Amino acid sequence: MTQVFNFSAGPAVLPKAVLRQAADEMLDWHGSGMSVMEMSHRGPEFIAIHRQAEADLRELLAIPANYRVLFMQGGGLGQNAIVPLNLAGRTAQPATIDFVHTGSWSGKSVKEAARYAAVNVAASGAAGGFTNVPPQSEWQLTPGAAYLHVCTNETIDGVEFNFVPDVGTSAGDTPVVADMSSHILSRTVDVSKYGVIFAGAQKNIGPAGLTLAIVRDDLLDHALPICPGVFNWRAVADADSMLNTPPTYAIYIAGLVFAHLKRLGGVAAMERMNIEKARLLYAALDADDFYQNRVAPDARSRMNVPFYLRDESLNDQFLAGAKARGLLQLKGHKSVGGMRASIYNAMPIEGVQALVDYLNEFAGR
Ligand code: PMP
After folding, report:
1. What is the spatial distance between Cα 103 and Cα 122, in angstroms, rounded to a whole number?
2. Which of 72, 101, 197, 228 is the most exposed place for a label (fewest CB within 10 A)?
3. Average pLDDT over residues 191-199
């Protein structure tokens, strides 16, 4: 098999061991004679797969008992609607939702939420070209807001929170909703500091099509009357994420990834590796001005590393040379151009080293 390193931002690299296990089990899961894809979601085999996946995720993230884990569909963008539809009813109407605007994805969240409530951008990194996380001391929060939305890792801009917003942690306080799509499971997180955490699966979890929502119990019951039934968190929680047919195969692969992460030592072990990988890559980008990453050092993402060549006329040559070395999908997001290396949990340090070697070679170092 061709050895490549895949730096895609998502769908993204998955652990080889997981893909091998899935291949082995493709036609006959544990002697059932069926592929997981062929199983009823209400049968004992799939219910066991689903229960184990949830239990392993709970262990990996130390999710407190007063949070529900919902396996949903609709992706991160779906949650941009699902969250306000479920939380805007928490306060007197018309509700106001606070946002910290740190890049492309939180920007999309603001736009979508404005369809359901008043929005207040409490702080924005726009003036600086989305190269930092505005410090909390500067946030203009709304007293009595329905919730505060943050995107704790901006996949396109490469900006990651290195602190937890501190605006209250119990029922009655403004809950913090975090879009952790592109860094969930890459670093330890104190779930109890958030009201809701959501994440599309296709980066650090598994295949596209599955979206996780981790919701504190007291936040399940505030849906607006217009919230579609299938997206109502209370209804989904009461049905154990089986209100309608869940993305069964994606849940199965996510479960294999969770078990794999546990074998590797859990999230703390991943975080240590991710710190090391990011250090290696940023050091190569910072070595001289041939490459440029514009993000403030304390806000640089460990998962998504956008960078530019000083001479952008070399972009095509850079990408062609990378591809020839098996370093794939390094082209930056079309909205910002340049390059981007996504180095999720499943990217081995050998992949980052291969990229660093190429960066040095291409720069003529
Ligand atoms: N939020 C973040 C942080 C993302 O990176 C993405 C996808 N790249 C989304 C939301 C949107 O996710 P989806 O494509 O699953 O709707």
Report:
1. 14
2. 228
3. 97
Is residue 105 among the annotated active site residues?
A: yes
Which of 181, 184, 335, 336 has the most ligand 1 atoms within 8 A of CB, as the residue to mutate?
A: 181
Q: Give the domain 17-262 fold.
A: Aspartate Aminotransferase; domain 2 (3.40.640)
Catalytic, 179? Answer: yes
* pLDDT at residue 73, rounded to an integer: 97
Using a 10 angstrom Cβ sphere, with 0-12 exposed, 13-18 middle and 19 or more buried, the burial of residue 257 is buried
Q: Token pair 């670093």 is at which residue?
A: 187
Query: Three-state DSSP class for 159?
Result: strand
Q: Is the confidence at residue 88, as pLDDT, over 80?
A: yes
CATH fold of 266-363:
Aspartate Aminotransferase, domain 1 (3.90.1150)
Per-residue confidence (pLDDT) for residue 208, from 0 to 100: 98
Residue 1 has pLDDT above 90, yes or no: no
Sketch the domain layout of the chain as residue ranges: 17-262, 266-363
Q: What are the tens digits of pLDDT across the range 177-194?
A: 999 999 999 999 999 999
Contact 148, 177 (CB under 8 A): yes
Residue nearest to atom 15 of ligand 1 (CA): 75
Q: Give the distance (Å) from ligand 1 centre to CA of residue 110.
A: 14
Q: Has 29 been annotated as catalytic?
A: no
Residue 101 pairs in a beta bridge with 124
Choice from 72, 100, 110, 155 to test ligand 1 binding pocket (greatest atom count within 8 A of CB): 155
CA distance 65 to 258: 19
Ligand 1 site: residues with CB under 6 angstroms?
A: 10, 75-77, 105, 151, 155, 179, 181-182, 200
